Amino acid sequence: MINFDSLILKSFCDENSEFFQGAKIQKIQQPSRSELLFHIRSKGETKKFYINFHPNFYHLCFLTQESEKLRNITIPKTIQNAKILRVEVPKYERIFEIYFEYYDELNEKSQLCLAIELMGKYSNVILYNYDTNVIIGCAHNVSSEKSRERELSGMLPYTYPVKQRKKNLLKTDFGTFMSLIDIENIAQSVSSKFYYLTISLVQDCIELINPFDEKNLYEMLTTIL
Asked: Which helix (H) or strand (E) holds 18?
């Protein structure tokens, strides 16, 4: 599985928000059922924005090359030549949101949002009207039989996933940090208690500290955040 966590997603958004702002979507292609490729024009250049929402390989990036096997999608009027207003990542979430302007048949303007949810087996791409909060369409519909907490399909209201009950390490002192973690299983316990910190990230930090010390781990993690 690719380690594309919420911290990496936040960094991607911060680094590329200027490119997305005011950009236009020129073309959309679909290499497979779980992949999308957006050709986006901004500031005199076109970039290929790649979205993978496969349960095991979910991630976002800009491509420098593309396969000849890609097929074009018929672009809905809601997206074709749409102007991107901004991109955002909700706090602590693995959701990349693209907000853009939409003009209906009466030439009335509204905002749409394309929510790219990168959450393992729950990964999805959802288009909804930001003004009314009504879903227009999803890559994967989720019925009440599949999820009691969150249904996703056309004409339903869009809601965020259930919030995880974790803490912000930057607002946690070392004493509290030590009281929350399990010394025998540090990587997993840190990941389960604090936002942004995956097991693999914590484990990588542990391996860099020699000899290992909890205080040094705490300081390294706060520096990363």
From this structure: helix 6-20
Please give the distance of CA 96 from its chain centroid, rounded to a whole number.
4
Q: Are 39 and 46 in contact (CB under 8 A)?
A: yes
Number of H helices, E strands in the chain: 5, 10
Question: Omega into 76 within 30° of 0, i.e. cis?
Answer: no
Burial of 43 (0-12, 13-18, 19+ CB in 10 A): exposed
Reported as a single tens digit per residue, the pLDDT across 118-138 is 998 999 999 999 999 999 999
85: left (phi over 0), alpha (psi -120 to 50) or beta: alpha
Average pLDDT over residues 173-187: 94
Structure-token pair, residue 53: 């929402």
pLDDT of amino acid 64:
78
pTM for the whole structure: 0.88
